[in-house]
Design goal:
alpha+beta, three-stranded mixed beta sheet, 8 strands, elongated
Length: about 190
């Protein structure tokens, strides 16, 4: 258990009965159900870290946080925090999103970058997962540029990830990367 987030199954395995869990999770009780099968062992509102940890616990082993939440954990804390946590899960898993968790199955599960015990997608994958669903072209440019300017990854890594991934939602990021590459080339020209 980390950040007071624990699976109900782990409590039961430790000898806590379902009845005891239900009693403690009543309104006004010391615990709360934060997601199906996931408890927060405190009564107050969950912190950002607890919400992220709960999303990973809910998604199960092998899951990684991606998108803007992963970028914030890797140093881009100035990015506005989205309402939903985007979590990648192994292709064979059949969980669906719930409440504030958006789950996506993938055949290309990235190797996790671990920060503060949280499994995160690397910057290139995280930003591309974010911009593939971004309806505003200016925001696509801003997110990609922010990752490059922060030194989290370069344009070649972004292009390689874009080419390796799904073609769905790739047009806007591809256009933005062309513009960033052109701008970078013009800046280097004498």
């Amino acid at each position: 258990m980390t950040d007071d987030v624990i699976r109900t199954a782990d409590l039961r395995a430790a000898g806590v009965t379902g009845h005891q869990i239900d009693l403690r999770c009543r309104p006004g009780g010391p615990w709360q159900r934060i997601l199906p099968g996931v408890l927060l062992l405190s009564a107050g509102p969950p912190t950002r870290a607890q919400r992220l940890r709960a999303a990973l616990v809910y998604a199960g082993p092998g899951a990684v946080i991606t998108g803007v939440h992963a970028l914030r954990e890797q140093g881009l804390s100035h990015l506005p925090e989205p309402d939903r946590v985007h979590v990648l899960q192994p292709e064979g898993r059949r969980l669906t999103g719930h409440d504030y968790v958006f789950l996506e199955r993938t055949t290309r599960l990235p190797t996790a970058v671990v920060r503060d015990g949280l499994a995160l997608a690397g910057a290139a994958r995280a930003v591309l997962d974010a911009v593939r669903r971004e309806p505003q072209p200016l925001r696509v440019h801003q997110l990609l540029g922010a990752v490059v300017r922060a030194g989290l990854c370069g344009l070649p890594a972004l292009l390689a990830e874009l080419n390796a991934g799904s073609k769905r939602g790739a047009a806007a990021p591809r256009s933005a990367l062309r513009a960033l590459t052109s701008r970078e080339s013009n800046a280097r020209a004498p």
